[in-house]
Amino acid sequence: MGTGERNQEAHVSEGSAATPPRTLAEALRTRGDASLAALLRARPDLLSPVPNDLSQLATRAATRASVVRALERLDRFTLQTAEALAVAPDPAPYEALRALMTGDDGDPAVEAALPGAVGTLRDQALLWGADDRLRLVRTARELLAPSPAHPSPTGLGPTVAEATAGMSPGRWQETLAAAGLPPTHDPVSAVTALAALFSDRTRMSALLDTAPPEALMVLERLVWGPPYGEVTPDPAPPVRWLRDRGLLLPTSLRTVVLPREAALHLRAGRAHRVPEPVPPAVVPAHAYSPQVVDSTAAGQAYTALATVEELLKDWNEGGPAVLRSGGLSVRDLKRTATALDMPEHTAAFWVELAYGAGLLASDGEASERYAATPAYDEWLELPPQEQWTRLATAWLHATRTAGLVGSQDAKGRILAALGPDLDRSAAPEVRRRVLALLADLPEGAAPAPEQVLARLRWERPLRGAGAASGAASASASASASASASAGTPGDLRSRIALWTLTEAELLGVTGRGALSSHGRALLAAGHGTGAGTGTGIEEATAVARAAELLAPLIPEPLDHVLLQADLTAVAPGPLRRPLADTLDVLADVESKGGATVYRFTPASVRRALDAGRAASDLHAFLAEHSRTPVPQPLSYLIDDVARKHGHLRVGAASAYVRCDDDAMLGEILADKRSQGLGLRRLAPTVLAAQADPAALLEGLRGMGFAPAAESAAGDVLITRAHAYRTPPRTAPAPVPEGPPTPDDTLLGAALRAIRAGDMASTAVRKEAPAAAPSPGELPRTTSAETLATVQAAALTGSAVWIGYVNADGAASQRVIAPVRVEGGFVTAYDHTADEVRTYPLHRITGVAELADSP
């Protein structure tokens, strides 16, 4: 055991044996390393930067931004416990808290869960003090306590003392007399008497027995909140009866409030109408065999790969232009959805997935447009299972949320696919949590989406209420409860959860709503951890295992098709890449599904001839890859198009047509459909046109001819599709949600620094004969006194407190244990840095002995 560890244990044991802590900092000093590490892991924002000591850590833990972030990560019951503490006396004994949570009748489930909730609040430094003096952190109490601007989530109003501040003595005596209480001589006694009446179950019941029925109905409307109501200058008799007896206290000329003590009596002592100590269960709604789930998910995974490939093939020669504000235009998204034969919101998901995986990016040119990246070509060469794991991993980690495409931002602007405003930092956490809930079910079991949403709302009620920003009010949990009871996914987390269920099915992570075996393996990295992600080694292992499980489920690519007499070809499964690429040029896709149907047309054959293929090449290709004989109509079609192909030549004059057959040129001139091309005969074998070459080619092909384009040298131009690629691009980095969870190495270093700094700041020094320095001031001693003191400390092995100024002029206080003093330097173990260091004596401003050596 090192010196630092021994000192730390001594420090903790002394703190635990001392008097009860008076502040949060003192409470933190009684904790061990494991407890402090758990606090820093649960609230990583406290480490940015590392606090100098425990006092600074306590101050940072009580700031509004940090407290709001911590409250957002509480589950519903723990948050209800904090809300009850906010309306309890400060400090509150555990029994008072238990009474607020269970009510007069008690609740075994709440009583069983309450110690765990209190422990969670204490572990996260939102609560401190022993069980007889529980204190909620002041900032948390301010956020959760009731006020006119922000009613308490409990629905309770202010206490009698808070609501009657400033009430006149005459009004007090009238209220006491109406309530049947003796008069008092001061407002403090009056407040005590009225609060005692409302808190006394027997006397309060007797008072309410005399109330008119209409007055009781008024109380019923206010008892569960909001506790405020409007009144007229001349209120109705039931309201007047309540106001006269203090059951409704005026907060303004037209507003009254039900005091907290009276509301608690009407609620039978409960702070919440429905405490929720147990999370909603997620149970199977449907059950399938694991083999069916895996087969379905594998089919979806293969379809996902084909869809991404089809998308990027459509953008192979350069995709849509980038909007000036960034992203894809609505028109281009519609065109892409039409090309992929799917709804626009689904097309937006695939576009965003390709972008998140680094397969798609903008080219960065002056006329910026989207295109595939060089990483796409590398991705194409991977085995299908590795292609899928790359897509699935990118989806799991992405903060970009495709479901937001088409909605409006806070300024009313439409959010565009690939636009700059789609990042939602909560998305990876929600995705992993949804899949983790599926993983907790038996294999092949699929839950109802409503159960998943209910569980997520219980686990993060404030996040569900939309209080994700640091400035958001913690009172938003009331709206979260209302949203949960209504069953409408209006909050962002619920919508992300629903999108996750849909996207997981599209991607093949789930099959029929149940988590697949390869999806379960992919989730194994970081499953069950607070961060939701594992180490790099864990994740690489999980990805490899997922690919291994998926590989045998993906069908092997085929090297053949079935040619039919109706000029179609049927691919009974996925095709190998060279065959698929050639067939895409030679034929048009007619239908997709388990088997893809291709149709041969004159235009598709001409497209293959334009790409440089000869008729003999096409015949040989079909004969090689067809399991059925090549139909005669298909052979005739290829020969007929090839015979006409290139007989006419189109070049650039504006444009011209030349042909050795002057009769064919005459036929073209006589055709009425050629009038828009502006043709005229220049020579027996040449026609000039006013249209450009591309329009002339399309016009002649529309008339049934098969012209070929030629270069200025008279050579036939081969019109192959040219792949356009962006420069190398990195995939978009996820936007983190606050500081990342620290690893064990960082936690250990931070704890040592905080402990050492705390030791230096709290060390007790002996009184010097001269005036002792004020707190925070460096000690001042002469050079001779400094040398003598550190030499004595080195001989006795004791520690001293020094003031030190480094080479940059930064001053600090340190506790050191000198080991050797020679040559103008002192070598010592520095408790502040938890390491051995050497200090020049001339930079030590002064030294003082410690009352008790650490």
Automatic annotation (TrEMBL):
Region (Disordered): 1-21
Alphabetically ordered keywords of this record: ATP-binding, Helicase, Hydrolase, Nucleotide-binding
Compositionally biased tracts (Basic and acidic residues): 1-12
Name of the protein in its database record: Helicase-associated domain-containing protein
GO-annotated molecular function: helicase activity
Key word ATP-binding present: yes
Residue stretches making up the Helicase XPB/Ssl2 N-terminal domain: 561-683
Lineage: Bacteria, Bacillati, Actinomycetota, Actinomycetes, Kitasatosporales
UniProt domain WYL: residue ranges: 785-847
Keyword Transcription: no
